[in-house]
Amino acid sequence: MLDPNNLSTSKQPKFKFLIVDSGPLIKGVDVRHLAEKVYTIPEVILEIRDKHSREFLTQISFDIETILPNGEALKEVVNFSKKTGDYTSLSAIDLRVMALTYMLEVQVNGTKRLRKEPVKSLTQFGGNHKNLKKAEIDTSVPQDDDDDDDEKGWITPDNIMEYQEKEQILSVKTKKDESMDIKVACMTTDYSMQNVLLQMGLNLVSVEGARIKKVKSWVLRCHACFKITTNMEKQFCPSCGGATLIRTSTSTDMNGKVTYYLKKNFQYNLRGTKYSIPNPKSGRNANNLILREDQKEYQKALKSHRKQKEVDIFDPDYVPKLLIGSGSSTSCGAPVIGYGRRNPNEATQGKGKGKKRR
């Protein structure tokens, strides 16, 4: 646990305004040296219920000002998060924290660097492979030109000092411009918030105070309709309803561009498609295949799974039922979709019939 009394506050603030989420405060991150003023919303303070985090928050020597965002900023954030597909993964508190960041950014810098629409996403196949369209365009062989044989554009012993001076001035200029640009920033550990903030053009910083220029995470991509969902607990596509969701890596850079990394020559698993599915059976123990989200078997299994997840295994009075001889030995995982990992096309060894009596 960090001791607030031993933390140094002599560092010069990097930002004018810093908006913090509950994540950095729960982790005990000292943000006194990062900004001149630290803001949040009242709900974030109420979210911090951990004893150590509350003590850290009360003992630390800086004041966190609580402000409510205006309705216009909240409307902009809600509309943008719906366009990126992160709206369902965000809570009301997350939306208000981002709305506060948006409101302060507009007050300080205006809306010139903010985006109204998400940047078009890019799909990259095979990791380091370049775009095929670009490769097809650049396949033509360039013609030789005698004018290119001079020393223009080349670094020679005569002009090397001049090039070094230019590069030095350029690097110092970019560092100064970048530090002067960041007046309002948001600190959060939630991926959905980070994704929306970067795509909107708002500044995002890590818990160490460094500017985050790229966020990497995972999403679920439907192999049938190619729709993307950020809800990693989904088992069925929210668009077409099929059980065709595949985990896909993605990244979002500071320019708001979202890139999805797909495996080259990917072969979809066709297990269980050789023979027709069995007809549904009636009865309590029918054990029918789950093929859609609205099936009563799936809803019943999902409800049971959620109840099992609510059991607190860190409770000192909690004893697993299997240790006391009660309960069943069934797994408490998510409901099995279709045939699961079992391959129904494999021939199973049937029970041999006994010898016929004469």
From TrEMBL:
<dbReference type="InterPro" id="IPR033411">
    <property type="entry name" value="Ribonuclease_PIN"/>
</dbReference>
<keyword id="KW-0378">Hydrolase</keyword>
<feature type="region of interest" description="Disordered">
    <location>
        <begin position="326"/>
        <end position="358"/>
    </location>
</feature>
<dbReference type="InterPro" id="IPR039907">
    <property type="entry name" value="NOB1"/>
</dbReference>
<dbReference type="InterPro" id="IPR014881">
    <property type="entry name" value="NOB1_Zn-bd"/>
</dbReference>
<keyword id="KW-0479">Metal-binding</keyword>
<comment type="similarity">
    <text>Belongs to the NOB1 family.</text>
</comment>
<dbReference type="InterPro" id="IPR036283">
    <property type="entry name" value="NOB1_Zf-like_sf"/>
</dbReference>
<dbReference type="GO" id="GO:0030490">
    <property type="term" value="P:maturation of SSU-rRNA"/>
</dbReference>
<dbReference type="GO" id="GO:0031981">
    <property type="term" value="C:nuclear lumen"/>
</dbReference>
<feature type="binding site">
    <location>
        <position position="222"/>
    </location>
    <ligand>
        <name>Zn(2+)</name>
    </ligand>
</feature>
<dbReference type="GO" id="GO:0004521">
    <property type="term" value="F:RNA endonuclease activity"/>
</dbReference>
<feature type="domain" description="Ribonuclease PIN">
    <location>
        <begin position="18"/>
        <end position="104"/>
    </location>
</feature>
<keyword id="KW-0540">Nuclease</keyword>
<feature type="binding site">
    <location>
        <position position="237"/>
    </location>
    <ligand>
        <name>Zn(2+)</name>
    </ligand>
</feature>
<dbReference type="InterPro" id="IPR017117">
    <property type="entry name" value="Nob1_euk"/>
</dbReference>
<dbReference type="Pfam" id="PF08772">
    <property type="entry name" value="Zn_ribbon_NOB1"/>
</dbReference>
<keyword id="KW-0862">Zinc</keyword>
<dbReference type="GO" id="GO:0030688">
    <property type="term" value="C:preribosome, small subunit precursor"/>
</dbReference>
<dbReference type="GO" id="GO:0005737">
    <property type="term" value="C:cytoplasm"/>
</dbReference>
<dbReference type="GO" id="GO:0016787">
    <property type="term" value="F:hydrolase activity"/>
</dbReference>
<feature type="binding site">
    <location>
        <position position="225"/>
    </location>
    <ligand>
        <name>Zn(2+)</name>
    </ligand>
</feature>
<dbReference type="GO" id="GO:0046872">
    <property type="term" value="F:metal ion binding"/>
</dbReference>
<feature type="binding site">
    <location>
        <position position="240"/>
    </location>
    <ligand>
        <name>Zn(2+)</name>
    </ligand>
</feature>
<keyword id="KW-0539">Nucleus</keyword>
<dbReference type="Pfam" id="PF17146">
    <property type="entry name" value="PIN_6"/>
</dbReference>
<protein>
    <submittedName>
        <fullName>Nin one binding Zn-ribbon like-domain-containing protein</fullName>
    </submittedName>
</protein>
<feature type="domain" description="Nin one binding (NOB1) Zn-ribbon-like">
    <location>
        <begin position="212"/>
        <end position="283"/>
    </location>
</feature>
